[in-house]
Amino acid sequence: MEKNQLLRDLPKIDELLKEDIVNNELKFTMRTIVVETLREAIDNYRELILSGSIDEYSKENILKSFLELLEEKKGSKFKKVINAAGVIIHTNLGRSLLAKKALENVVNVADNYNNLEYDLKKGQRGSRYSHVEELIKRVTGAEAAMVVNNNAAAVMLVLNTLCKDKEAIVSRGQLVEIGGSFRVPDVMSFSGARLVEVGTTNRTHLYDYGNNINENTGVLLKVHTSNFKILGFTEDVSLEELVKLGYESKIPVVEDIGSGTLIDFSKYGFTHEPTVQESIKKGVDVVTFSGDKMLGGPQAGIVIGKKVYIDKMKKNQLTRALRIDKMTLAALEGTLKYYLDEKEAVENIPTLHMILSQKSDHKKRAQRLKEELESKIKNFKFALEEDYSIVGGGSMPTEKIDTYVIKVESDKFSPQELEKKLRENKTPIIIRISNNEVILDVRTIFDKDFDIIVNAFIFLD
Ligand SMILES: *Cc1c(COP(=O)(O)O)cnc(C)c1O
């Protein structure tokens, strides 16, 4: 049929609203959603006609499309995606994946009433923090501990408790912005602390701190420069020196360690990354870190250190606003349990396992995926290559982890087009483009998802 005629014959919304199928939906679905979806279905067909993709259709086609679109709308927008980018702690993709015990704990606690704030021994009100406090103390060696929603909240709570209307002395080289949303200076001003920047971007000396201490000084703050490293002509004050200065001037030393690794990565062949335990051992008064970075747990902010300071934070009303949820607590407890035995931790916590897994294992896995792709797909070329993964999440910024990747070549799609197509897959596949080539890094892909990747390529083939 002629294009104009086809366009003229497109049904109107009012007409479709009289159809039984639509009326059925109207019984329970919000009318605005039904109308909006009908419009989308009609618009889609209009475009198909205009582009010449179809030269006939029926009202039933449009109604079927309407039902599909409606189904999609009612489904979850929050989806599983496949991380083929090789960035292990990918903030945009949800950072750390939870370990099995953490997941089991979440389900058990969320699916049942529980002792969140109930002391089962005494039969009276208990503390929600008690479930993880002992565990954190044991694992980190700290005197006391508490947890809040995330590390940004932890920093804010610490400064608000110890440094409100007072000065926090921090090195200029540590005034970092993390992932565009966490700026040390901004968080500090929200907390009511006044920032005193000392030293220069690349060099700060102990006397820079010392010269600025006065009766208004609240804390000496050290911030771990998670997502960048200043190389070359640099000088930084060591934690030991800062702790000594704090002790002598009776001013608490606070360290925002950011990623918060609890295991010594140098044992596994990586460059040494300061651990949480080391900071405590060196005598830092208060240390804060994230739950979902190197720790490999849920989003949380962990505050540890001397009991006098932690007790003050527990009494701060701000704590109530930053209160951690029961599901998070359950996940955190489940994750921390593994750390009682480091071997268990590195085997079972996905973030640690992915960082420490061997290149040779990934070679076999990449080969398997490549063979499967090659056996089913004609119009793409797949090549096995050595490359590297990164930790991400502002952790271990200079560490490159050797890995194997599959390089994808296509005559049909540019790398950018292919990236988009894979991202738009039913289960989105997030790849990385490197040197204008599409790369699938198997380090962050699970074996169970190989089929989804193969099917996505079959669809594009
Ligand atoms: C990541 C990070 C933060 C923010 O932690 P969230 O848990 O994301 O709130 C703060 N400080 C440092 C040094 C970080 O690396």
From TrEMBL:
Spell out the SUPFAM superfamilies in the cross-references.
Answer: PLP-dependent transferases
Coiled-coil region list: 352-386
Q: What GO terms in the biological process aspect are recorded for it?
A: conversion of seryl-tRNAsec to selenocys-tRNAsec; selenocysteine incorporation
Name the EC number(s): 2.9.1.1
* Domain L-seryl-tRNA selenium transferase N-terminal: residue ranges: 7-46
Which GO cellular component does the record give, naming just one? cytoplasm
Which InterPro entries does the record associate with it? PyrdxlP-dep_Trfase (IPR015424), PyrdxlP-dep_Trfase_major (IPR015421), SelA-like (IPR018319), SelA_trans (IPR004534), SelA_trans_N_dom (IPR025862)
Q: Which reaction does it catalyse?
A: L-seryl-tRNA(Sec) + selenophosphate + H(+) = L-selenocysteinyl-tRNA(Sec) + phosphate
Cite the annotated pathway. Aminoacyl-tRNA biosynthesis; selenocysteinyl-tRNA(Sec) biosynthesis; selenocysteinyl-tRNA(Sec) from L-seryl-tRNA(Sec) (bacterial route): step 1/1
Compartment(s) where it occurs, according to its Swiss-Prot or TrEMBL record: Cytoplasm
Q: What superkingdom does the record give?
A: Bacteria
Keyword Amino-acid biosynthesis on this protein? no
Cofactor(s) in the UniProt record: pyridoxal 5'-phosphate
Sorted alphabetically, the keyword list is: Coiled coil, Cytoplasm, Protein biosynthesis, Pyridoxal phosphate, Selenium, Transferase
Positions where N6-(pyridoxal phosphate)lysine occurs in the chain: K293
Q: Name one GO molecular function term.
A: L-seryl-tRNA(Sec) selenium transferase activity
Q: Would I find Protein biosynthesis among this entry's keywords?
A: yes
Give the protein's function: Converts seryl-tRNA(Sec) to selenocysteinyl-tRNA(Sec) required for selenoprotein biosynthesis.
Q: Which family does it belong to?
A: Belongs to the SelA family.
Protein name stated in the entry: L-seryl-tRNA(Sec) selenium transferase
Recite the lineage of the species: Bacteria, Bacillati, Bacillota, Clostridia, Eubacteriales
